[in-house]
Amino acid sequence: MSFTIKNALVATEDSYATVDVQIRDGKIAAIAPELEAVGTIVDGANKLLLPGFFNAHTHSSEMWQRGIMSVLPLELWLAELYDFAPLDTEQVYLSALGTAVETLLSGGTSVVDHLVLIPGLELETIATAVRAYREVGIRAFVAPLIQDESMTAGIPSGESAQTHEPYFRSTAATLELIAEAVRQFHRPDEGVEILVAPTGIQLCTDALFSGCIELSSRYNLCRHSHLLETKAQAKLAQEKYGCTAVEHLSRIGYLSDRTTLAHCVHLTDDDIAILARTGSTVVHNPLSNLRLGSGIAPILKYRQAGVNVTFGCDGASSNDSQDLLEAIKIGSILHNVTDLDYQHWITPRQSVEMASLGGAKGLNLGEQLGSLTVGKKADLVLYDLRNLSLLPRTDPIGLLVLGRPTNVVDSAWVNGKQIVAHGQVTTINVNNLRQELFNLSRWDTQRKSPTVAQIEAHYRQVMGLL
Amino acid sequence: MSFTIKNALVATEDSYATVDVQIRDGKIAAIAPELEAVGTIVDGANKLLLPGFFNAHTHSSEMWQRGIMSVLPLELWLAELYDFAPLDTEQVYLSALGTAVETLLSGGTSVVDHLVLIPGLELETIATAVRAYREVGIRAFVAPLIQDESMTAGIPSGESAQTHEPYFRSTAATLELIAEAVRQFHRPDEGVEILVAPTGIQLCTDALFSGCIELSSRYNLCRHSHLLETKAQAKLAQEKYGCTAVEHLSRIGYLSDRTTLAHCVHLTDDDIAILARTGSTVVHNPLSNLRLGSGIAPILKYRQAGVNVTFGCDGASSNDSQDLLEAIKIGSILHNVTDLDYQHWITPRQSVEMASLGGAKGLNLGEQLGSLTVGKKADLVLYDLRNLSLLPRTDPIGLLVLGRPTNVVDSAWVNGKQIVAHGQVTTINVNNLRQELFNLSRWDTQRKSPTVAQIEAHYRQVMGLL
Description:
Two copies of one chain form a homodimer. In chain A, 35% of the residues lie in helices and 20% in strands.
């Protein structure tokens, strides 16, 4: 399957050029002005061609609760989230489709889904999400969210002695579940990977982390976790380990150049040096960090220390969208208020590189994806520069990153297969998806989380909120 | 002209109701279930009806430079902006149309345009913007941006003795210009108001402020200024007055219940008390404050002190969009990182009230606009809840404010006149606008600001950036 994009605008070192791009067998075969047209012709005139971005951290099924979650910090918000979590695979299917569509239509061609598993239907949940992503054709990194401690263990004890229910599934059974998911669904050549994804130090034992490291080595899997999203987690790490979470994860060998770590808000300078040394990747989720009041991740410090950084939307209940361009914009400009020296601020071209090559590197695919380079896989997005939100014509990348582009994705390809054309997803029927989302939901404002009611007093006390 | 919106969802105290809304003679005449249909029928089923929002601070002609401005703090950014500012009224016309369209399609029915005047064509600039807003039909508060000191006077002197060129137009001539604009264009009953709008303490003498106060009293005009946007301005106020800018403006009588103040990032607790006592309104421009690294305005403190707060996009060169829903979202969630106690955080319903009634109050129109109240003017927006970005159905206001709604404005009315229908602006041809913006611009990355080159060393020195 070959095609040629004619006369597209592409970024050069500090400007733009108009070129043709040949794609053969799913790969970029040539980039130059006035190439011979092979295969189908795609008109790239007045359009900007960029490598596809990575939505490098999300939880697809949170789409069902976007807009309705109370204004709460992570620990209480999670309690509310789980009280009302979706419990059937039809919902998992539709929210994976929705996540894929919103990601694609905002420039993403890859999604890392830290997938919440329905208890008792774990493999079915994974199978369903994989099916949805295959149908859409987006590149999917399915990271089944696992833990082996119960929810309440994620809140620091403070002065009080807290006991927690044991988690309902054993560590060994959880690891076996992931091994089975790998056997059934891990198909890197087909654009579907399974990741080991222990949720984070707040709810995982060392046994679970070690088992994940072992699976990661045995099957060559990437690793994905939350890390130090909140002040409460930083406190908890000290209670649990007597050192920072990063020091502990480094000691047990979890950090590596194929480990992506969502959030990374509360790290020390020493922690940052450890991330740099281990080649770990930070996934910045700015909207979620603001929505949940988690804090501002020190992204400028990461960049100065040479830590690889990319962007994620996070789950739609803490965002409450899957618009990757919005996450990139806010994740870029937010940090200008943390450093008076504007020479350290992120430029739009740097943002694009973080969102594309930064994501690819984190998933150990920096040689295969993330830039317009001959020989790399053709995960590409073509933006329509005649859209009102990208006018007047100024600097196209500046306006794409710093503006509020809407309806600007004209075409998108994954592995050389076109899955968006003329602004529409071509692989699934989005109108049917809308209708099903509508039919399976109802407007609501009156819900109350029983778990929040149980744990709020302890949370306020241990966090010094009186 | 009468019409009835049938079966629309509206917010009740803590839930929603489905009602009919009758509009007669530009005003809301009745709100209740199953009303008699008067005039044209508008189908409100599966749609949310809200009062129109206020884009309470922008500079329309900045649209010409959105996306291309360097990553710089305000003082240097302004130098670059003015080096490349548009110089003809055709550009002013098109960017006012563009600002109106983007504001309308993101829920705004009023715009406060702190309009940059073309030197020598001041009244023509104002006439052109007024004409554009009248054509679109958006409610327009045109605030001609005036000053009587030159650009370089806006940067603190520090230890060095700085001298500045005198401003090219006298204070008296500037005040006469505004008086003439009022006579020609101030037509509150027709939805067009002129505001007195000295840019701020950084570039205005007390004589200019006093003249504006006098015009404001004589013609019953609202007042609009920038206030303490940057740390540099806080420094400058101390150099100029030996006290804070708020103390000074209060002493000379500029603050009032019809004074709106853009930014308000660097205020002391005493300053906040003065804003509350004088009934002044803060216009929060979160995206611009992040983009320019100005800081995070202490919005939660304002709310706790009883200061009225509303939202603005600010000019499109520091945002770089005019999507009001984006400004409302970020302006709401940004503050969660400034206060650990989530009980102080802004809820989506509070955001809606700030964006509607908050804007109306600031413009001394709280009795006439800003809420769905019988007897108020019909500035209304109907949102389509079947749009993918507002699905699944959860809490419509939560999802509108915290999500990333795109293409969701189905209809909008100003003074009872419909100006958006079926998602399209009906009063002007937006495709022609796009074509003209395209034709009058070109892609560019290579510009360099000579003024930035001149003043950067002094700026870095006085701000302690070495």
